[in-house]
Amino acid sequence: MTVSNMTSRERVKAAIRHEPVDKLPVHDQLWSQALALWKQQGLPADISPADYFGFDIADMFLDSSPRLEQKIISRDGEYITYDDCFGYRVRKLDGQSGTLDFLSFKTTDQSVWESLIRPGFVLDPDEPARIDSSSYFAHLAPYPTWQEALEKYEKLYATDKFVLFQAYGPWEATWRHRGADKLLMDIALYPDWVKEMADVYMDHLLNILKHCLELGLRPDGFFLVEDLGCNRGLLFSPEMWRKTYRPAFEKLGTFLAENKIDFLMHCCGNGEELFDDLIECGLQLMQPLQASAGLDVVELRKKYANRLAFWGNFHAEAMAGPIEPLKESIHRKIPGTHNGGYIFGSDHSIPPDVSFERYKWIIEEVQKVFSSSK
């Protein structure tokens, strides 16, 4: 089957459904430092990388926090320390991408959860909007009104890109007010409490999505950010995930399917032990397929066939490395993608080590191999 002149929305939807595409869908995220360097290296000042390279996805981000008090604690040179609305204090590079130093978390015990965190997971439509076109992470500026958010959505939707709403998953949302080390112990010692926190959070997230739909903010897809793995595998056993988090995933998957919204997920590390569970919960696409964690999209496509689509798997460090291994990787991973099931991207985000010219070459080579392998 030959297809041509697809819009970005049509192209991404076809890829998710394992249907033929006219060219390979592409989408990536850049470190802020990379964007600054690219502008020095030839990226026109009046165009974004997304428009220059024809990225196929447009993002909006849900604030699914309990909206705790958010305030800047200090700014000392290049660093900022602030309290986040999700319930943590962090020190990070001010206005730049980089390592995060999490300093403290609000939920020190179950009583704090009951008295402070849980009451915050309530949607008040009279508050500022729970969605914006800028990321929920380090969103220190005020949120727009719901009407302003709708106008931003309509402007994005009119571009014919695939509009993707993003939010934290229940694990990510919970450790941000509890702390990852403590939450891992909770999964072992207090699984019923962990499930309760996951369920309360998911009900809150779904209420936000329902309100968006009522106002006319309807995404093509929903992207759950949920890092369940590390380089060696899952952070906890599949059995404990099924006991604590799977019910929340099932609830989300059912809602998205009923509303004909595609279900995509970001999971760093190697979470493959849960891929079958996630497919049963309605997941249609997994991203970013961290290469350094042992994931290989060629093998994954063989194994999961039309049951799961994939996005990413090009190691960001390799993108900046020697050209021949990178070229070999492109020529091995891209053939066969003309029948859908794959979106090109890095296995996380683009660091400043990847030059503007190198990324231009990568995109050109990827589309050349895609066209020649049809």
Taking all Cα atoms into account, the compactness measure Rg is 20 Å
State the order of secondary-structure elements, H for helix, E for strand: HHHEEEEEHEHEHHHEEEHHEHEHEHHEH
Helical content (DSSP H or I, runs of 4+): 40-55%
Largest sheet, spatial ordering of strands: 6-1-7-8-11-12-13-14
Return the CATH class: Alpha Beta
Basic shape: globular
For the record, the count of structural domains works out to 1
Q: How would you classify the helix and strand content by structural class?
A: alpha/beta
Low-confidence runs: none
The average pLDDT score comes to 96
Number of continuous helical runs: 15
**Largest beta-sheet details:** 8 strands, mixed
Beta content comes to 15-25%
Distance between the termini: 10 Å
CATH arch. level architecture: Alpha-Beta Barrel
The count of β-strands is: 14
Could you explain how this protein is built, in words?
This protein is 41% helix and 16% strand. With 374 residues, it is of the alpha/beta class. The chain has one domain: Alpha-Beta Barrel (TIM Barrel), CATH 3.20.20. The strands form 3 sheets. Strands 6-1-7-8-11-12-13-14 form an 8-stranded mixed β-sheet. Strands 2-3-4-5 form a 4-stranded antiparallel β-sheet, with helices on one face. Strands 9-10 form a two-stranded antiparallel sheet. Helix 7 packs across helix 8.
